[in-house]
Design a protein that fits this description.
This protein has 118 residues and is an alpha+beta fold. It has a single domain (30-113), classed as Alpha-Beta Plaits (2-Layer Sandwich), CATH 3.30.70. It is built from four helices and three strands; from the N terminus they run H-E-H-E-E-H-H. It has helices at residues 2-27, 43-54, 82-91, 103-107; strands at residues 30-36, 59-65, 70-76. A hairpin with a 4-residue loop joins strand 2 (59-65) and strand 3. It starts with a helix and ends in an 11-residue tail after the last helix.
């Protein structure tokens, strides 16, 4: 009887352990998206947006491209979404994809960072 309980306990522990491994592995896979940044004008904009994106919970990596006015953002889909990433950029005063910049934040940007058409 004790040996059956012991075996059952071992199988239960293994099953729980494997479940944890599966759950952990799926949450650590990163998704990558391209964010269009039409109002990114200069190196200062690039640094600001990069810092804003990096601060979003779940963002793992940000690769900025000033020439093409884009950012490639790798993130954990269970913690971040494209909408949250866009919202962070918008709140900092810049346009993201088809979302317009927050007017109050935009007004506070340095003149070199203002694109004109927001």
């Amino acid at each position: 009887m004790k040996s059956r309980m012991w075996v059952l306990g071992i199988f239960s522990a293994i099953a729980l352990g494997l479940g944890g491994v599966v759950a952990c592995s799926s949450s650590t896979e990163a998704t990558t998206t391209e964010v269009k940044l039409p109002s990114m004008q200069c190196g200062s904009c690039e640094q600001t947006i990069s810092a804003v994106l990096t601060a979003v919970e779940g963002v793992k990596e940000v690769k900025m491209d000033l020439e093409n006015k884009t950012a490639h953002v790798s993130f954990l889909a269970n913690l971040a979404t494209v909408a949250k990433i866009e919202a962070a950029v918008v709140k900092s005063g810049y346009a993201a994809n088809d979302k317009k910049a927050d007017p109050t934040a935009y007004a506070k940007l340095a003149e070199c960072c203002k694109a004109g058409d927001q």
